[in-house]
Task: inverse folding
């Protein structure tokens, strides 16, 4: 079944960073232009550069999915509190999947018939970028769905590094 362009969802992939927040805000504004639903996706993957990312303090007994769900809830609660008037994020579908982020983001975008993928990127460079690559860059290279990469505003002093 072919879906009308106006009703195809906008997919935002988040990793709880300030760049994800910027991407979510950008996508919310885009929903106003296209009258499209918003889907928020977090791919659960314990990255090599931050092992234990999903561990909650010293409690290593909780399953990664439970901690990731809690982190997603906390991130979205923060977004709701900071931006109470943004209806798109309040009405968004939220999904969590396990796997390698680039592949799962592309797979989900295709299955949900997303018109666009929106992602934040911190723009790492140098040896860290060479060794680890960029999820946003990989998605942009491999996706058949258009990709918008958003960076946090330059005056934002918050970082997740």
Result:
């Amino acid at each position: 079944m072919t879906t009308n362009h106006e009703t195809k969802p906008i997919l935002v992939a988040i990793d709880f960073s300030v760049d994800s927040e910027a991407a979510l805000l950008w996508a919310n504004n885009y929903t106003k232009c296209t009258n499209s639903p918003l889907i928020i996706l977090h791919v659960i993957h314990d990255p090599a550069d931050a092992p234990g990312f999903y561990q909650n303090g010293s409690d290593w007994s909780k399953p990664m999915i439970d901690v990731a769900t809690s982190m997603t809830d906390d991130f979205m609660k923060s977004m709701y509190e900071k931006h109470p008037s943004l209806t798109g994020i309040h009405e968004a579908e939220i999904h969590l999947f396990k796997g390698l982020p680039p592949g799962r983001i592309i797979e989900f975008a295709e299955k949900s018939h997303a018109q666009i993928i929106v992602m934040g990127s911190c723009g790492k460079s140098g040896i860290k970028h060479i060794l680890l690559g960029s999820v946003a860059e990989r998605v942009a290279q491999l996706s058949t769905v258009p990709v918008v990469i958003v960076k946090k505003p330059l005056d934002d002093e918050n970082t997740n590094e």
User: Anything to note?
Assistant: The beta strands are 10-13, 38-44, 93-98, 116-120, 147-150. The chain has one domain: 9-48+62-150. The first helix runs from residue 18 to 34. The domain at 9-48+62-150 is CATH 3.40.50.620 (Rossmann fold).
